[in-house]
Amino acid sequence: MNFTRRDFVRISLGSAACAATPRIVAQGIATHTVKPEARPTPSGLPFHAHFTDIAEAAGLKAPTIYGGIENKRYILEANGCGCAFIDYDNDGWMDIFLLCGTRLEGAPPDATNRLYKNNRDGTFTDVTDKAGLRAAGWANGVCIADYNNDGFDDIFCTYFGQNRLYRNNGDGTFTDVTKQAGLWDDGPARWGAGCAFVDYNRDGHLDLFVSNYIRYSLEHAPVPGESSTCNWKGVPVNCGPRGLPTGRHSLYRNNGDGTFTDVSKQSGIAAATESYGMTVVTADFDEDGWPDIFVACDSTPSLLFMNNHDGTFREEGVLRGVALSDDGMEQAGMGVGVGDYHLDGHLDLFKTHFIDDTCGFYRNDGKGNFDDVSRLTKVAVETRFTSWGTGIVDLDNDGYPDVLFVTGSVYPEVERKLPQFPYKTPRVLFRNLGNSTFEEMNGSASEGITTPHSSRGCAFGDFDNDGDMDVLIINLNEAPSLLRNDQEPKQHWIKVKLEGVKSNRSAIGARVLVHYGGKTQAQAVVSQSSYYSCNDSRLHFGLGATKLVDIDVYWPNGLHETYKKVDGDQLVTFREGVGRVANKGWAKG
Amino acid sequence: MRIRSWFRLLLALFFAHLLLVAQTTDVIGPITSALRSGQFDEALQLLQPELQRSPRNAQLWALDGIALSGKGDKKNALAAFRHALGISPDYLPALEGAAQIEYESGDKDAVSLLQHILQLRPNESTSHAMLAALAYRSGDCAAAVPHFEQSGSRLDDQPVALQEYGTCLVRMKEFEKAIGVFGRALAGSNEDAGARYRMASVQMMAHHPQDALETLQPILRTSNARVNTDVLELASSAYEAAGNTPEAVRVLRRAIVADPHNVDLYLDFANISIDHQSYEVGVDMINAGLRAEPNAAPLYLARGILYVQLAQFDKAEADFARADAIDPGHSIGSAAEGLAAVQKNDPKQALATVRAKLAKKPNDPFLLYLQADILLQPGPEPGSADFREAMLSAKKAVSLGPSLGAAHDVLAKLYLQAGQNDAAVEQSRKALAIDAKDQTALYHLIQGLRKGGQQKEEIPELLKRLADLRMEGTKQEAEHNRYKLVEQETPPVKDERP
Fold first, then answer.
1. Residue range B76-125, pLDDT digits in tens
2. What three-state secondary structure class fits A298?
3. Helices (H), A25-105
4. Contact check, Cβ <8 Å, A375/B378
5. Which A residues, 421 through 460, put their C-beta within 8 Å of a C-beta on chain B?
6. H/E run at residue B356
């Protein structure tokens, strides 16, 4: 709504002094307060996906330690972390990687990132120590890709402190190669937030973009109630990010020999200084064959770096309509879903925001210009929750991508004084009605959706290889959720896995169009989306009643290939310049 | 213009003219001598036979006019001057005499006479001053200001004229020039407190709070009993704008103690509380105000807003209802109930509330704007009934309230959604003309220009402007975040400090 709190107060009070009343600072990770729209009448249409949280049964029992439980003194404890689906052993079954935080008073023994191997029977085994991935700290984001093109996916984690690059050795173990790779930062601790592998110069090697959140030090950090930015609705809470100095983002060029060079300045990335960076998504938004970089930013305009094709970028988020609300106000951008809700073959964006604000749905015109369609799509009914991880994913395989996001407050102390603002809140599911509008399903959604948690990152993937998309969710100071998707009746689907040859092996930056039943859906291969998380690298398309599809693949290095009349209900793997090849491990679920 | 000085001026001009035309005669000498010594009847007696002998002597008629003016016979004096001008249209003393009489009587003929004088003597500062005053009185500051400028130092002992000059500059938003003019008024005012107050007010308008405080200091240093609350209120605003919130609050509390029935002072306090997110302190101060003025609708409104910030919506709604009941003519009060419903995430109730208010006040631009905005919330498709209604409502709002920037903003948004980019650009420009710092309008303008493909060369500068406004806003926020208001443990007492 055009009517921010500033306007409300200024016009209402009407005294001369009000003319100079500046923008009201609500607090913390947002100042933009928007009013929701009225909920439309339910469609009554059945939704054939049902979600059951099987995390405990699957063996995912360890809690994600992250800061205080009853109180969060610092914003560092509140933001949480991401998670990933990764097939680290190339057996065709998605394994799980969960980041973890720590506590102010020191890391408890069970505070570590965790790698879980998929046992292929609905359970997982903790192989963290065996893999060499035990690590405690304030982990934030994870991005997954094969940076050295050796055929095995590697892991990069951002931290408040030292970011880490773990090279997959191909034998079930990882090695921390941060220093050798030239990614070690000897300076004061930085707050690494989102990250993404991207081959920005199309040389076949994956480069690395890291967003930064705040320039921060616990030693000098303000405390709850200390100033205006440390209060929320009259309750003293952790401070920031407003009022705290912004972080600086980094772009590292892959030298092709296992090392990286910081090219932040020469690429133009370093010029974007006034932003609290969060999740990073890289894709070719203007379809010119070169990857662009979108950064969701908290309480500052989000960033869209457009690739100039010469090793540099120009930042055009405001110009292209994707940085601010439709009233030109900054929002608390946290998570990003990328997909094609409109089925026009272009990559749209869905951005999650703070409580009292709608999520932002941005429709791409194919040239990298976006319109805010939050209200037109009817997702603006929901403003009750602070929202984090998200995805534009066809959860019921009807051929129309849906939207799911996870939620959770950042202020556990507020609930005690204002119970109408609980700390743990439900997931939110918007099903696509097929006419470019959405319907919120929470009243009729399954328990896996409605059970409240304080969640952060989430990853979408098919861990049981049954042809539908499951959801892995980080819950702060609780065990994660693993929502198994069960569909009845089942509808058709197809998964597309890409292997680059001239392009980077992970095919990060590839754009895939699947044509089915008169519809066209675009997806991109990315190394991070949602909130600080990484999805299953196999692109999943629900097909509804259609069984046969055509597929267009736009490879990162420019090659365009078309595959006609491909059967649905299977995983297809395409190798660049070769064509269809055998799947690794899993043939058909 | 003062009369006393005029007569001497006119005589001086006449003699200057005589020197110019070297027309000193035995006849004229005694007449002028009589005039100089204030012997008007004698001068008239001397003039009578001369006028009969030389009825077409403009000089004599002018002297006749001067004598009659001296006697206070304005009507006949004017006739005499007019008669002189009939003989010699460019005869300056007659022009000046007639102009003065017409000016004093408020006759619009004074303008043409003064303009005629200026044609003959373009730098004649008195005529400029008189034309400036006439233009000011007719509300034409654009015409007045050039004449004020040309009046030069003629105005320095004319405090009213300087004030009019300064006021015009303020109306034309030329605050820096206005400061200079009010400074002249202050310099010649012999430490008049009103002159200090006006100067400081303009300095605040020009965003020079430190200068305003310096100007006010001599008044603030006086004892409590003598400082009026307008000055204290202005000083409080200046302290707050200068980032000295503790002093702003102290001075404002002093004002409230001195004038506890002044509702505006409590509203100012509420403003500071909101700026510093100290809502409970604001509520407490408003409560004190309501004890002094229990029927002050603005105080209920302000307290309602504070309750909204605290998410105490029931209390907020009760206060808005009370404000509306006390003063139903105040549209903001009417709208506040709807606004509170919106803030409470209840847009259906918000629309119902606003519609009910509109039924009673169908031409209230603020309510019309609010209706448009609420209708826009569900994202109606362009062309749908709700969209058309929102568009009509917004158009009516800007037509009835052209200075309501928010209405232009929502109309621009509607046009953007409808693909009418040129119209969106037009509305955004209107909003920016009202408030150059309206970031919403600036953003809509950028989007409208980009989508319309027009004037794209303007876009980079607009983007920079938007970024600069954001930076400015961030700095202001940082300033406000330095302080938080807390409750005093002991009740406030009269502050004896200057």
1. 999 999 999 999 999 999 999 999 999 988 888 899 999 999 999 999 88
2. strand
3. 55-58
4. yes
5. 421
6. helix B347-360
